[in-house]
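Practice problem: predict the structure.
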Amino acid sequence: MVGGYYDAGDNVKFHFPMAFSTTMLAWGVLEFGNSMGSDLEHALEALRWGSDYFLKATKNPNVVVAQVGEPNGDHDCWERPEDMDTPRNTYLLSPNKPGSELSAEIAAALAASSMVFAASDSRYSKLLLRHAIRVFDFANDNRGSYNGIGAPCPFYCDYNGYMDELIWGAAWLYKATKMGKYWDFVKANIGSIESNTVIRNIKGDAVLMSGGGFCEFGWDSKHAGINVLVSQWVMTDPSNASPFVPNADAFVCSLLPNSPTKSVSYSKGGLMFKPGSSNLQHATSISFLLIVYARHMQAAKKVVNCGSFSANPNTLINLAKSQVDYILGNNPLGMSYMVGYSNKFPQKVHHRASTIPSLDKHPQHIGCRDGDPYFKSNAPNLNVLTGALVGGPADDDSFEDSRYNVSQSEPTTYINAPFVGLVAYFKSPQPSSFIKFGFRNFSDLE
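Answer:
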């Protein structure tokens, strides 16, 4: 299991957030690849790094690798990845130890990636899709939560159930193959996740949240993502639009500052906030959905009505732009929350490899606790983690540049992954230009 991504500033390969990050990176390329210019090749390289890894994780039928690394042992050390001497346990899913949410998210990641590579590497693309189909079947035929293997909790427990991932995976497979059975699965099961409440993972605890599952999107909850994704092919089809388009509209109304049904809060500086740590994960993933949905609205000449308030596509685009601008420095502190961008950015990022000297500077082994002086130092990190987005400021727009403040100073892949497509869009907006990736029909696999 060489390869893949660590989730954040530690050295554990948590596959649930890694798979979601891979799905979002692929979606960003599908939507905005035409705007990436010469950076498209780097996006494809990053995506292939993730999809290659998930091919390994799903190599054997009826087995899915769920995680690499024992998290408690890892979190008790502060050392470089090159020096790891903590337990590297590998945790597996099987029919006796199912994990539908993780397996279905991997299926979504592989299906989305298969569409990205369809034009440039058809052989690889078909391999990805074959794995996606097999892993989705494994997830659906062996239903159960991956919480049962013990390793993900309390870090990435799935408190929200696995049906949203199964529907999400089926929606991506339908988008990739146009096979009716996947669309039938989505329609038959979407009602099972429609609820006025949702359980969220808040710092490792299960918290019941009101406001509707349609408002949720992130590594644990795929509800809003399902509705926005599906809206692309049902927005002008009255027979199939419900509940997807009404729920996507309700999601939009839950975000707009002037909407009577707004359920998020905004700082004085204008940053969106939802409960939980690493708040920028919400700002980036939700902004991504806003841009994608705005593009679907533009194509359908649609507006969203939020009571007495109406929103056109530009309303959504402007809200997303305000979040991107805030993240990159248009905020009360003048702070860019992307490391290495602008003249003022976080210096004490909670990330092991960023804080400890490189092998070039310090070739000797650095043991489990030998990295502590670098963690406790008041000096900036020795290695600039260029491009990483950290958790972001508090809801009063303040920011504590401290490795001890994990919620604010730790970067994660699932903050960065949606942001790639966002900045590509705002670099060169092309509202009506969709990159030509994907399969025409299932026979392309043969």
